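Progress narrative, Year 2. Work on Acyl-CoA dehydrogenase family protein from Nocardia bovistercoris advanced from sequence curation to structure prediction during this period.
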Amino acid sequence: MLLEFDSDQRLWQKTVRDVVAKHCPPTLIRDVVDRGADPRPLWKSYLQQGWTALTERAEAVELTIVLEELGRATDPTPFLATTTQFAPLAGGDAPEAAGAAIYEGISARRVGAGWTLEGSALVLDGDRAENLAVVTGAGVFVIAADRVRAHRISALDPVLHIARVTLEDVRVEAGDRVDSNVRDARAVALTGLAATVVGASQRVLDLVVEHVSGRQQFGVPIGSFQAVAHKAADMHVAVERARALTYWAALTISAADPRGHLAAVMAKAAASECQAMVFRHGLQLFGAMGYTWENDLQFALKRAKAADLLLGGGDEHRATIAKEYRAARI
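Result:
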């Protein structure tokens, strides 16, 4: 992929989009939120499709395509945490069970030939993961989730699972430690979150365009008014900018480019700016209807905002970009 998808990637995007539209429609998301529907059959369908096997570095672009479509659909499964946070840290074969990652907040104390892990952190899908990859000063450890305490907490996005995970005197041995490049793994995680924000923001834009094209004032669609058209155009530009940086980050990861971490940070920063504009303009263009529970706009808005807050917001990542550029004396 250079400036646009090749034929295979376009076919892959269409295939993923068709599968998501069939198996993860807006009605399913509302069922999960309003009636507590179980998303595990959807997760199993992803496993059967082989999507969780997209963990090789060379498949980063293809994985990002999946993540964008799932972000657009407000996916209720642990796919994001498993493929972009757990798998890059854990290494090995493609995960067949849900996983999550703890990047900070856990300390490792040497005890004999092993270590004792202690600490607490907020973890994406920490309450329904079967395995956890834990980053500590002594390395990365992979442990079974039944060795920790996890409690789901309330989050802005009602579909997203955020849990308080606590480790108390969890004993690990040398065999639990994995050889993992945390910096590279974090780049994958940031790119995955950026793709999720892009997909959710695109969904907001699609709903807005549909709304302003159909609603009329003074006998014409409100989308023909300059003030409305300018806001929609600004949203489109923001989404395209964030999408371009996200796929550039995925491309650098797939090519083992040393700029991979910086590209991922730039993608996450651009996604943050994108969702802020899309959130503001999306609600304004929908008017009071955008604030109602019955409107599906809320799910895309909340997914974009929640994904932006995970692993640092825009301010943090812009500071990282400035620091790395100063270090490189550019």
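The beta strands are 99-102, 106-111, 114-124, 131-136, 139-144, 149-153, 162-172, 177-178, 216-217, 220-221. The chain has a mean pLDDT of 93.
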